[in-house]
Each structure stands twice: as C-alpha cells, then as structure tokens.
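Section 5.1 Outputs to date
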Amino acid sequence: MDAAYLAAALSLFKADGSLDFASQERLFNSMIDAGIDGILVEGSSSEFFAMSMAQRREMAKFAIDCVAGRVRMIVGTSHMVADSIVEFSNFCLDAGADAVMILPPYYFRFGEEALLQYYDTLVRRIGGPVYIYNFPDNTGYTIPPSVVLKLAQMHENVVGMKDTVSSMDHTRELIKTVKSQVPAFEIYSGFDDNLAHNILSGGNGCIGALPNVAPEQCARWIRAFRENDLEGIARGQRQADQLMDLFSMRSPYLPVFKEAVRLRGIAETSVSTFPMPNATVEDDAKILELLRRQGVM
C-alpha cells in the first residue's frame, strides 16, 4: 500500500525563549534517520501562534536548509492577516519548501461561500503547492468536503489537506467526495492513531506529532503498510494507541511532548511559549514509564 507518515515537528527553544537550532537539528535528523517521510514545521505542534513573524521566518529558513531535500518539507504559514500569509508562503516556497499549509481564519466562524473565497484569494497569489489545514477543535468550525472539492478543481496548486479530527467521519467524507473526483489530491489525518483507518479508507496517511517522540516506531509502522505486513500494521496500531496517552497527560499536550524529547536527550530544554505550562516531576514519571513500556527509551 502506498502511504506516508510525516512529522508535525515541535519548535524547540532555549531557556531564554530564543530558538534552539542545535536541538532542532537533532530533532529533524532523528526523524529523517529513522525513516519518516516528511516534516511539517510551524503547524499546531510548533507553537506558531505564539511566535513572532521574525522567529517564524528564522525557523522556516533553518528547517528548509537543515532538511535540505532529504524528505518532504512543508511549512505552516497560517496567520490572521491575508497579506502576511501570502508574503510568508512565497518566502518559504522561494527558499525551497515543497509546500505550505494554511488554516482557515479563526475567531469568527465562516460559511462555505466565505471559505471558498478566502482560499481562492490566497491560492491565486501563492506561487506553489498549498495544503488546506482543518482543525475544528482550534478554529471553532470545520471545512466542508464540498469546499475542498471546489478548491481542488479550481486550483492545481491546492494539492492536499491535513484533517485534524479525532474521529474519521469527516476524513472519510473528504476521501469519498474529493479523491473520487481528483484522485491525486492528498488527504492526511492529523491524529496518529487514525493512520491505519485513513490509509485503508483510501487516504494518504498521517501528519502527526508522535514521530517527535518515537520516530523509529512510527517509521516501522508505515513500512509495514508498504510491505503489506498485516501483523506489523496491527502491532503499530497497538503501540500508537498506547503512545497517544501523551496527548492526555496534560492540556495543552505540547509541554509533555517537549519533555519527552528532552528526556530522550534530543532537546536541551522543554521550554514552551508563554503561557504554556511547564511539565512537572509527576509528568516526567508518567512519560518515562510510558516510553519505557513502549520501548522508546
């Protein structure tokens, strides 16, 4: 089966809040060396929402140069100002990104007509491949499959979608509605435990956060799909189901993931952007116990 597993990479910071490029390089290399198919930077796992545009440009340029074409590189360019999205997207594409990914506008909810106009206006001004990013828990509403289909039919550079929903209902409708008409359109789940269901339903895989913590296990799981290894697929599903506990240890989940990366010796600190809480000693005990049980440490 043809499938891909991309990592929604964390952004790593020094104690003073500046970007930690040494740790970031170790993180990228750990995932690429393990066999992960691509990297998304400045998605939700990267805290783009609390980073200045100067930091975001720094991170994008560093990531593109560091990955250097070894795997696919996507940059999240979401912003609440349309001109900033267009400018940043073209900056990333000109610097060598393979594609950009864009959320719908948030704070207010928008209907189908407004969403179609929004993406149509942006995509016309962006000189490269664009992925739509659906994350209703964080934006307050979902992008209907009918809108996605229209955009895919209108624009050759609207190439795919990351659908970050816990159940598969919406993703299945996307696959049925869009891929039946535009087979090359890529549909990825945003939660790692939906990877198998996505692929078996006709989707393209996952762009998830678990590869930050368990890249070898995630890469082994996606290889099982390519080799039609049913036992390996089932084993990977069970392991992912256990590792998903990292998301529920604390809300938001990012400090837990960062602490796990620090405990693995990749990051110098688990510092997050304000006002993210810090991981606690109790969190450390739970993280270590889970990672050891799953053979990650």
